[in-house]
Design goal:
The structure is a single chain. The longest helix is centred in the C-terminal third of the chain and has 21 residues. Helices cover 56% and strands 9% of the residues. The protein has one domain: Up-down Bundle (Methane Monooxygenase Hydroxylase, Chain G, domain 1). It has a three-stranded antiparallel β-sheet with strand order 2-1-3, with helices on one face. It is mainly alpha-helical and 152 residues long. The protein is globular, with a radius of gyration of 14 Å.
């Protein structure tokens, strides 16, 4: 069996970070996919109902997980997350947006740190299987109770 490439490992931790933070806020998660070339994606329910910083935290969670676990990062994945933030902050200046992103990155990082065992477990499953529906994960993902963010 060949060892997974660094791009796949980075993508798995990136997507696992998004999933854990999304679950923290009570969002629904469906299909999660990672690819050898570092591409990935997750079906996460809309965040429009969440407070602003929590919405941004869901977007920044992939990069926060990669930083926490010191996995390879793909600039294009981070750019895609940044672009997502831009779609719901068109009225903000670049400086305002950057300040919000920094706060949300810390928020996401705290959620990931408190749930690092589950982030790592989910990432390892993604590395092995490449594509899963969250409801297929056994045992189910369990988050630690935390007061970080405005958990739903």
């Amino acid at each position: 069996m060949t060892q997974p490439g660094s791009e796949l490992i980075g993508a798995a931790y990136h997507e696992a970070g998004h999933i854990i933070v999304a679950l923290h806020y009570g969002l629904e998660v469906g299909l999660i996919v990672v690819r050898e070339n570092g591409d990935g994606g997750s079906d996460i329910s809309p965040t429009r109902h969440l407070p602003f910083l929590d919405r941004v935290a869901v977007c920044m969670a992939g990069g926060a997980a990669q930083q926490h676990f010191q996995t390879p990062s793909m600039d294009y994945a981070m750019l895609a997350d940044y672009a997502m933030v831009c779609t719901f902050t068109p009225e903000m200046t670049g400086e305002e947006r950057e300040a919000a992103i920094e706060k949300a990155f810390v928020l996401a990082g705290n959620i990931i740190q408190q749930n690092s065992d589950e982030v790592a477990r989910l990432a390892k499953i993604l590395i092995a299987r490449r594509s899963i529906n969250l409801n297929e994960v056994e045992p189910p993902v369990r988050l630690k109770s935390t007061s970080v963010g405005s958990k739903r």
